[in-house]
Write a structure and sequence with these properties.
Blueprint lengths: L1 H24 L20 E6 L15 E6 L1 H10 L4 H9 L5 E2 L10 E3 L5 E6 L1 H9 L1 H10 L8 E9 L5 E7 L10 E5 L21 E2 L1 H6 L4 E2 L2 H20 L6 E8 L24 E5 L7 E5 L23 H5 L8 E2 L6 E3 L19 E3 L6 E2 L9 E2 L5 E8 L7 H13 L10 H15 E2 L23 H9 L11
Parallel strand pairs: 8-9, 10-20, 15-16
Antiparallel strand pairs: 1-2, 2-6, 3-4, 4-5, 5-7, 6-7, 8-11, 11-19, 12-13, 14-15, 16-17, 18-19
Helix pairs in contact: 7-10
């Protein structure tokens, strides 16, 4: 057993070394390309290189065993990184610099291994051959979705590769953004699908739930957890979730999750305010005075004040949910921008200053110009949902939420149909995880709408203990809310 452990550990270390070596010689050698110069054949392109241990004419010697490295759709992923505002040099330093990759001690439920860049900006996940092939098949649609909806919540993919050691099996890997790339402590983490069958985290024998435990849907209901957002933020979040679910359903995908991280603040944080002219008036807004307060991450918390130093009140128009239909890019080009647009150096990718996030409207989610917001401490762009200390502050500023849609590569097929019918004999077929893509999207959105609210939360301490988990898994969501155990409190302890 001990020798097997050493072998497994050795293989993991060799894989990490091979990933870094292969990326230096393939990804690092890609010629920068204009984001709009992507052709259909670029999605099927791949670069393959042999790396013998002793080195070759074009490859250096290395400490690992001889292996082959394949880089899939290099121009496409380079273009995506450009659109995400990722600096090529920073990307290579994070993943292939002097520091080694760090990994989780054990694989996830799917059997995938996870590795992190030394600065925790990127995640490397191993995947099956079929998953890699499927991702490549939907890559054109994925690329177009990010072009049309730059503030999408779905996982950002930065690269897709394959490592083939001489005396070992091939390993496919994908490089993604780390949703929890933050210096803040996370006091709760949830993986939510909108299903209530088997969606509960049970601690291992002899252990208890902790802040490191990823909880699920039934845990969220049991703990009476809600997300409290200002009306404008909630409207933006629900609209983007709707756009993303429509996209995933159009590809026949289901079983994806909303990954949620929650930081609870001990002291009350003053919520952000926004001030911009009503769209019904043509008068020019007076230039506000900005009070910028750097945080631990360097992302600004911004309030607006007049020349005397008094905070400007938030007009009713800033939380007006009747924002009209989503406009097209062509229509938007004929309108004057309400954001100052910045063109990033050495690229035509446009961004806007981070302090303009409070002025975002629903129409801004669906136009490519302007795009994302500039991160203050890293040479990359963030969405409006990452504009407040890397996430979104609650309506009273006591909680910071990190959200994203993950696990995108499960297709509705015959096996999932059989799973639905078998579990449907015992449980409500509409509540099992495996349902048709359209039904999954509708249930997912309804669940999110139920627990993302625009109410004021009860102040809560970050040190509150997690309650014991109820072992029941067969109840429906609606019955629990009807009994008063719904989502009315932020974090609470059940009566014992």
């Amino acid at each position: 057993m001990q020798s097997v452990f050493r072998s497994s550990r050795s293989n993991a270390e060799e894989l990490k070394l091979n990933i870094q070596t292969g990326m230096r010689l393939t990804v690092g050698a890609i010629t920068p390309n204009h984001p709009s110069d992507i052709l259909l054949e670029d999605f099927n392109e791949c670069n393959k290189i042999k790396l013998p241990r002793q080195g070759g004419l074009r490859t250096p010697a290395h400490k690992s065993s001889s292996f082959k490295f394949k880089d899939y759709a290099p121009k496409v992923f380079r273009s995506l990184r450009n659109r995400f505002g990722v600096d090529a040099a920073d990307y290579m330093v994070s993943l292939c610099g002097e520091h080694s990759l760090t990994g989780l001690p054990s694989p996830g439920k799917s059997g995938s291994m996870f590795y992190f860049s030394h600065d925790r900006t990127y995640v490397i996940k191993t995947m099956s051959k079929s998953e890699s092939k499927f991702l490549r098949s939907i890559l054109p649609e994925y690329y177009n979705h990010f072009v049309k909806h730059p503030h999408t919540l779905i996982t950002r993919y930065f690269g897709l590769h394959r490592v083939n050691p001489r005396h070992s099996k091939k390993t496919h890997i994908v490089i993604m953004n780390n949703l929890f790339d933050t210096d803040y402590d996370l006091h709760a983490k949830y993986d939510l699908k909108g299903s209530t069958v088997g969606r509960q985290t049970k601690p291992a024998v002899g252990s208890e739930l902790s802040n490191e435990t990823t909880l699920k849907d039934l845990d969220l209901i049991k703990f009476r957890r809600q997300l409290y957002l200002e009306p404008r933020k909630r409207a933006l979040l629900m609209e983007q979730l709707k756009l993303d679910c429509q996209f995933l359903a159009s590809l026949g995908l289901m079983d994806y999750s909303l990954l949620l991280g929650i930081h609870v603040k001990n002291t009350v944080h003053k919520p952000l305010t926004s001030t911009f002219c009503s769209p019904k008036t043509t008068e020019r807004c007076p230039a506000p005075v900005w009070d910028k307060t750097p945080t631990r991450l360097g992302i600004e918390n911004v309030t607006r004040t007049d020349s005397s130093g008094s905070e400007l009140p938030e007009p009713a128009s800033s939380v007006d949910l009747d924002m009209g239909p989503v406009v097209t890019a062509e229509q938007r080009k004929t309108m004057s921008h309400h954001f100052p647009v910045v063109v990033r150096e050495n690229t035509n990718v446009m961004s806007i200053p981070l302090h303009e996030a409070p002025n975002f409207r629903i129409a801004d989610l669906t136009v490519p110009h302007p795009m994302l917001l500039q991160h203050l401490t890293k040479n990359m762009l963030v969405s409006v949902f990452q504009s407040e200390d890397g996430g979104m502050w609650s309506s009273d500023g006591t909680e910071l939420y990190f959200v994203g849609v993950i696990d995108l590569l499960t297709k509705w097929n015959g096996l999932k149909v059989v799973e639905n019918r078998i579990k449907g004999v015992v449980y409500d077929p509409a509540q099992v995880s495996a349902v048709a893509p359209e039904d999954y999207a509708n249930r997912f959105l309804q669940f999110m709408a139920d627990f993302i609210v625009d109410q004021e939360p009860r102040p809560v301490s970050a040190t509150e203990a997690l309650p014991d988990v109820d072992s029941s898994e067969d109840g429906s969501r609606s019955s629990r809310w009807a009994e008063g155990e719904g989502l009315g409190l932020s974090v609470d302890k059940p009566e014992t």
